[in-house]
Write a structure and sequence with these properties.
Belongs to the group II decarboxylase family. With 467 residues, this protein is of the alpha/beta class. It folds into 3 domains: 5-58, no CATH class; 77-335, Aspartate Aminotransferase, domain 2 (3-Layer(aba) Sandwich), CATH 3.40.640; 350-450, Aspartate Aminotransferase, domain 1 (Alpha-Beta Complex). The chain has 10 helices and 16 strands. It has helices at residues 44-55, 75-83, 96-112, 129-150, 168-176, 224-238, 255-258, 326-362, 393-402, 432-450, and strands at 5-9, 15-19, 31-33, 122-126, 159-163, 180-184, 206-212, 244-247, 271-277, 289-293, 305-309, 312-316, 367-369, 378-383, 409-411, 420-425.
Length: 467
Amino acid sequence: MSNTQRITRHEDGRDRVELNPIFSRPGEATMLPKFLFPEEESLQETAYQIVHDEMMLDGNARLNLATFVGTWMDDHASRLYLEAADKNMIDKDEYPQTAAIETRCWRMLADLWHAPDPANSIGTSTIGSSEACMLGGLALKRRWQHARRSAGEPTEKPNIVLSSAVQVCWEKFCNYFEVEPRYVPISEEHKVLDGHGLEKYVDENTIGVVAILGVTYTGMYEPVAAIAAALDRIQEATGIDVPIHVDGASGAMIAPFLQPDLEWDFRIERVASINTSGHKYGLVYPGLGWVVWRDITALPDDLIFRVSYLGGNMPTFALNFSRPGAQVLLQYYLFLRLGRTGFHAVQQSTQDVALYLSSEIAKIPAFELWNDGSDIPVFAWRLRDGYTQNWNLYHLSERLRMKGWLVPAYPMPADLVDITVQRIVVRNGFSHDLAFSFLADLREAVAYLDALEGPLPAEGQHSGFHH
């Protein structure tokens, strides 16, 4: 605990924050309850010091190689953030310019993702890509319901087809909105959902297929074009027409700049909607997602609410109501600041670091790469079979944490749960110099573990990371 405060427990069993007297002022309490409202006020300097010191106990965000979420922006962005901290994104009448900038952003994304007519597309910002996925899934479900009712068919049993490596937000979608998830298991032969065997999962109640552009477990792209081709064959055989939602939480802000010839977006006719995280490879601080539909017909009108906006109507479609507008302005700032050339330079730099790291880790005899980071700048590795009985990747993760590095170890999804991997996410701000430092600490940790004369205990080990 810092010099400012310590936690004490008193006879009544209640925890209190006890201040170092040097930080308190005459007449101020030197003990504050930890889980109850204090009876009296504190000076702002005192309250600030308490929170400031508590915050120091968190990990260093720049050394967190587990998260996809942005941990760095430049000083001008930080200034904008503070200047816009009071803007409420839902209040489009009070903040019409922020609302207009939101529209500019998703229109820019529609163009980036090759919408047939960006002016005729529709989109929205969200609090993150999880909400964006929920909205994309809801639109698929409602379109399916409308089509079934028009044909006089029942609408009680919708399902959606997903990879077993899907992010947990899709499990939430299925639970919250009563859609049956149909998981296509990944395997050593099919490391991602690639269209293989898709006909076993699709039927007349399928509202859509989710294709992941950057699987959370490993960073690999699912081949959207191959999935669409499989759905074409299914339609030819059965007449069932199934759309695709691309979960591009990470990859939708990587592929346009690093793999511009890869067809994964609205160039594929079956792609009805795409989401991304502004706060991942969109390079903005946490709290921003985007979802765009290929045209206005892809988003059923009865899902849209219309609010008064400068004497007219503005459509809104969201699960949240009040939410920050600052991140939307930060996204627009970055679009203007970087442009296509700048985004390419930033994303190429992160991928260069990822490829360097994966190539060096592949040289360590203990490890075998699962992928190398050539899709999004994310890669995973596993312990080579038979290498050692004395330690595992959970032990390695703990050793690295001692140096401040957060590198998760976790089991792969269903049908591959016996395989444990570690994964690194390279983000903007993670330089080659930091990569050199990490590799030195990794090699040192492996050397320490290799020198053990007996096995470390493995009881109670669990993943420190959740997808």
